[in-house]
Amino acid sequence: MTTKTGVANAGNVIMTGVLLMLLGDLLFALNDAMGKWLVASFAVGQVLVIRSVGAFIVLGPMILRQGPMALFRVEQKGLQFIRVFMATVDVALFYAAVAYLPLADVMTFYMAGPIYIAALSHFFLGEKIGWRRWLAVLIGFAGVVIALRPSTAMLSLPSLFGLAGSLAFALSLVMSRYLRSTSDTTLVTWQTIAALVTGIVLSVGHWQPATLIDWSGMLLLGVVASCAHLLITRSLKLAPASLLAPLQYTLLLWAIVLGYLFFDDIPDTQIIVGAAIIVVAGLFIFHRKNLKETVPVEAVPPDGH
Asked: Considering just the CA atoms, what is the radius of gyration of the chain in Å?
């Protein structure tokens, strides 16, 4: 009975991680659309600065709750620095790419993230995945390509920003999983501070006046982004990265929904077919993961962070 209870609890932990990742992806889709709108009128550095300030609306109470000094009591400081660096590169390059390319083109690069994550998790986190799940990840990416139809603009320099940013994003997620004993608040706070510093540097000589609506939009961007980071960081502590990675494909589905709601874009047959392939591939990977392994209870950090 005890064994059955342990297995059930582990299954609940995995499901919680999956749900948090799905919600985090929804918020990231909102963040992407808002960021696209803002960088069309303002420099990337300025958006990063105000976005970071907005993030502390969410992070401030959490930092006070755990104690400011806890931010400096972290494991493996070298890996923490690399993770923060990768997360900052991801954000900066995403906004740099989306300022020149259509959002769909940039998202195509980021949809390759699950492939990077699966490979990195296999080699660096010891999360073994079989050939069926490898095949499903590749099929899922093929569905993304079918749905998004990359344009010829993807051969430009900004496309390299998107490609490098997606790789940095994948690396930051894998390292979040590796550093799962560090509190969510600490992980997200340091990457927000790094984004703030980077934004200050990049905005020198490029600061522009803005309306109240613009300032509010940039602050709200920070609130949405910080909530998304907190949810995804938490999910990576509850479920293996190789399981969660394919769920990033739901960003495409949310892009279709948001495009219809806010821009009156109606998806055509090709997008629907691609989205269907992505969903089927993701569900298959989830099913195979449940058959093969579970997350041991001891893998969940006992401090509740």
From this structure: 19
The tens digit of pLDDT for each residue in 223-267 reads 998 888 788 878 877 887 667 877 877 887 787 777 777 767 676
Structure tokens at 7: 């297995």
Report, as an integer, the average pLDDT of 179-202. Answer: 88
- The answer to whether the beta carbons of residues 158 and 102 sit under 8 Å apart is no
**Model confidence at 295: pLDDT above 50:** no
Task: Report CA-CA distances (Å) from 251 to 32, 34, 76, 255, 285.
Answer: 10, 14, 31, 6, 17
Rounded to an integer, what distance in angstroms lies between the CA atom of residue 53 and that of residue 86?
20
DSSP at 303: T
Q: Please write down the HEC assignment for all residues of 176-239.
A: HHHCCCCCHHHHHHHHHHHHHHHHHHHHCCCCCCCCHHHHHHHHHHHHHHHHHHHHHHHHHHHC
Identify the burial level of 69 via C-beta atoms within 10 angstroms of its C-beta, where 0-12 means exposed, 13-18 middle and 19 or more buried.
exposed
- Long-range contacts made by residues 26-30, C-beta under 8 angstroms, separation at least 24? 26/250, 26/254, 27/224, 27/225, 27/227, 27/228, 27/231, 28/225, 28/228, 28/232, 28/251, 29/251, 29/254, 29/255, 29/258, 30/224, 30/254, 30/258
* Per-residue pLDDT reduced to its tens digit, 31-46: 888 888 898 889 989 9
The answer to whether residues 42 and 215 touch, using CB atoms and an 8 Å cutoff, is: no
Q: Please name which of 132, 94, 98, 134 lies closest in space to residue 116, comparing C-alpha atoms.
A: 134
pLDDT of residue 65 exceeding 60: yes
Q: What percent of the chain has pLDDT over 90?
A: 20
Q: Phi-psi bin for 204: left (phi > 0), alpha (psi -120 to 50), beta? A: beta
Alpha-carbon dihedral angle through residues 241, 247, 249, 250, given to the nearest 10 degrees: -150
pLDDT category of residue 182 using cuts at 50, 70 and 90: confident
